[in-house]
Design a protein that fits this description.
This protein has one domain (13-169): Transcriptional Co-activator pc4, Chain A. It is built from 2 helices and 9 strands; from the N terminus they run E-E-E-E-E-H-E-E-E-E-H. It has helices at residues 77-87, 148-166; strands at 13-17, 25-32, 41-51, 64-65, 71-75, 100-103, 107-116, 122-131, 140-146.
């Protein structure tokens, strides 16, 4: 009998970058570990800023983000390796100048992840999606610039996730072994060597 018990990893890595003029964005990365018959992945969700922060005395409210208008991308092992190459300084841009290309029946998505030095040093994560239907709306493009400290966190999370993207825990029931006889027990007279 093959019992399957899967362990799940909960949580996400999120960065929120609101701006005073309301055109900021936020991104969340969530690990989906491998399972039997399915490779693992990381889902990245990027959302535009919905409201600006209010700092007036008595009316303080944080900025909010429009997660209903988010773009969700599924990053597989090759996508994540390309991003890791950028984070480790081996490549300037994941997927080259054109980025990482994803195509589905409904949409074409380009994911950009590159190192930038101006106006500040950091990494740009950018997603552009164009629907592939007639009378489709204009493409949607969202981006966020991660600072060096945020990129450090992303690098460590990606590095730690690679094992879980490829391998999974499996539980299996095994019949218990018969106990070994205790050498201190008395030996039966018929089994005695003399």
């Amino acid at each position: 009998m093959d019992n399957q018990t899967y362990r799940t990893l909960e949580g996400s890595l999120a960065f929120y970058h609101p701006t005073g003029n309301g055109n900021g964005s936020a991104v969340r990365f969530e690990l989906r570990p491998a399972r039997r018959g399915r490779e693992g992945c990381i889902f990245a969700e990027i959302a535009p800023q919905k409201t600006r922060a209010v700092r007036d005395p008595g009316q303080k409210r944080p900025a909010t983000f429009d997660w209903q208008a988010r773009i969700v991308v599924k990053l597989g092992l090759s996508d994540l390796c390309a991003m890791m190459s950028v984070l480790e300084g081996r490549e300037d841009s994941a997927g080259g100048e054109r980025g990482l290309f994803h195509q589905s029946a409904d949409a074409t998505t380009v994911i950009g992840f590159r190192r930038v030095t101006e106006p500040l040093a950091g990494y740009v994560f950018e997603v552009s999606r164009k629907m592939r239907t007639q009378n489709a709306p204009d493409p949607v493009r969202l981006r966020i610039v991660l600072g060096e400290n945020e990129a450090c966190a992303l690098r460590h999370v990606l590095a730690g996730s690679f094992f879980h993207l490829c391998f999974y825990w499996r539980s299996q029931e095994v019949a218990p072994l018969e106990p070994e006889p205790d050498p201190e027990e008395e030996v039966d007279a018929e089994d005695a060597p003399f």
